[in-house]
Predict the 3D structure of the following.
Amino acid sequence: MVCSIFVFAILAIPTAIGVWLAIKEPPIKNKDRSVKDYVGNIAKIFKQKGKTLIGCFAAGSVVLLVLFGVLSFLSDVLEEEFGLKGVTKGFALAGPVLAMSATAFFSGKFLENHRNLMKESIVTGLVMSAAALALVALIKNNYIFFGGLLINGIGAGLVLPAVNTLVTSSAPVEERGGVTALYGSVRFFGVAAGPPAFSTLIEMSRLTMFAAGSGLVAVSALMAFFLVSEAEIFGKSKQGSDKKDKDKDKHKDNQSQDKSTDQDEEEHGLILRTAMSPTLAKIGETIDKFRGKKLK
């Protein structure tokens, strides 16, 4: 316990220094607003984009509740059934989290240029998690168990980048802190509620625990399917304007390439003419000499 706290302090201090030095805060336009105005603006955001935000809040909270609930159960299984302890147990526990982190990295990169697929990413990840937990509940097999937990982690990795992007994009810079703070509170409520909830359900049965987790994720998938809308966050014309901007950039690139080609051809012609001028002059002199001799 003491060692883990010591390691956390070692990692936290350089991280804090890096954040302080590397991250620059954007300028805030309205610094003198009252708390009433600030809360009123956040309320307007939820009034305009509340359906999508509710779907995102539910998806982010549920996927982490289930992930950390499963990890608490996995910790007991690794120690009691497989006799793993210490660092070995820690590496085994890191499997689902590593699957989540790797998937989140690559899906986040992909979604940077495919904003119209945010909803599909959320729903797909939730369906994957629900199916994996249902499979683990119905089939008692070690390969199914560990494979299902990895798939659950991959599903969480598909959900979280899309949810985070939609939540942070729903508000301007001035109100973004309040909206993301609410989202963080709801999300980490799921993190905190997961282990005790799964510990309570395992007392009933293993089937009940995983079936309840699968059902909860399935409900959040339905909520995301019916509530989440990229157009509500980014605007209906956002995707079209992005495409038009790309087409314009491509057209400009083609024009610049054509212009540079014309310039190259002109320069090449100039160089060729300059290089050929002495030759042409010599030919002219030879012809003049030949005509002079013939006249004589």
